[in-house]
Every structure is written in structure tokens, then in C-alpha cells.
Amino acid sequence: MSGLSVVIPARNEEGNLKGCVETVLEALDGVIDDFEIIIVNDGSTDGTGALAERLVAELRGVRVVHNAQGLGFARAYRHGAGLASKTYVALIPGDNEIQPVSMRAIFEAVGTADIVVPFTANQESRPWLRRLLSRTFTGTVNILFGYDLRYYQGPCVYPAGVLRTLRVTTSGFVFLTEMLVRALAAGYRPVEVPMYIQPRQSGSSSAVSLRNVVTALKPVARLVWDVGARRRPRR
């Protein structure tokens, strides 16, 4: 395979960012030699920006861009992906919740299919309400589009050329699902990789909430209109 750009969106992740970058470097070691790590400091109000600058000075292949104001996770990721110079683009959130062995497995799968699709394998580590909402959302997407994936909200790896052609109409919670469904509908082949998560060292996540799931209904309905229901990916 060719090189890999790893985009790390980070907003107020001062307590997690260094560990995240170190985990990425450890996972890349011996797997992918041609890489770059792009930290997107998304308007952080803590020491995330200063920490990112220190990491750039200390570590190979790391660079940072600073958003003066927070654009949100989706737009921060798209900003970083737009700067990527390698053949493939990976998303790794700056919260350092992905276990090192899983991150390595994700990187090892790059090039084995068009898209690497991680799914959370230890859902029992999540609060019960988050598990319920996640399973309900995943099941609904599978029913609507005729797929059988285990997860739609994971940090997928795309070819850079594919990523830049994917239409994204929302910057909300469901943007990862929209990207993946559009890619599958276009015929790109997925490979699923189990991903084990670990507790954050600092802060808390609001990635899945009842409010997020409710607000996702409109973009999902638009997606059904755009790409059609019950279309299956080519294997």
C-alpha cells in the first residue's frame, strides 16, 4: 500500500492528546512507514494547542493546524482530511479511547478493501443507554439500506480520492454514517475490523446521546432520498 494520513481532531484534549499521538505512532511502527499525523486543534480553550506544537517539535511526521474557533468534530475532520497528502486517510479522535492493539489492527487492514470499517467490539464497557441507542441506530441504518454492518459511527479509513468525492450534507453526529453509506452505495467494498475501546484519561464523551440520535433522523431521511433504500454493497 501507499502512505497514510492520520487526522486527529482535538478540542480541549490536553489530557489525552499526547497519549493518542504516541499510540498512533506505536501502531504505525512496522506497519506503515510512509505516514503523516495531522492534529486539528479545533478552537481549544485549554492547553491542547500548545501541547500539539510541542508534539510537532518532538515527534517525526506530526503537524498541526489551529482553528481559531471550534468548528465541530465533523468540520475539523474534513479540514484535516483536505490537507492530507497520502493515499489513504484515517480518522483517530484525540480522546485516545482506541486501545493500541486495535489501532494497529485498523492500520494493518488498510489496503485489504476499499474502506476499513472499525466496530466497537467491547460495547459492554459503554453505559447501557449509550449501548441501546447505538444498537438501535445501527439496526435502523441496516434495515433502511439493506446492509449488515456492525457499526456506522466508527473511525473509518478511506482512500483520499474517494473521501474527497463523498458528498456530506450534515456536520452533526451522523456525518460518519452519511459518508459510509454514500461510499457503500457507490460500490466501494468494506472490511470490518473489531475495535476495543478504553476509558478516557481526561474529560467525558457526549458522542452518543438521545438528543444526537433524534437530530440524526433528518439527515438519515435525506440520505434515504439521495441514495435509495435497500441497496447492498458490492463484495
Features of this protein?
alpha/beta; disordered C terminus; 235 residues; 9 helices; two-stranded parallel ribbon; five-stranded mixed sheet; single chain; 17% strand
Summarize the structure.
The chain has 235 residues and is an alpha/beta fold.
Would you kindly provide a written description of the structure presented here, covering whatever features stand out?
There is one protein chain. The protein is α/β, with parallel strands linked by helices. It is 40% helix and 17% strand. It is built from nine helices and seven strands, in the order βαβαβαβαβαβααβαα. Strand 1, helix 1 and strand 2 form a beta-alpha-beta unit. Helix 1 packs across helix 4. The longest helix is centred in the middle third of the chain and has 18 residues. The chain starts with a strand and ends in an 8-residue tail after the last helix.
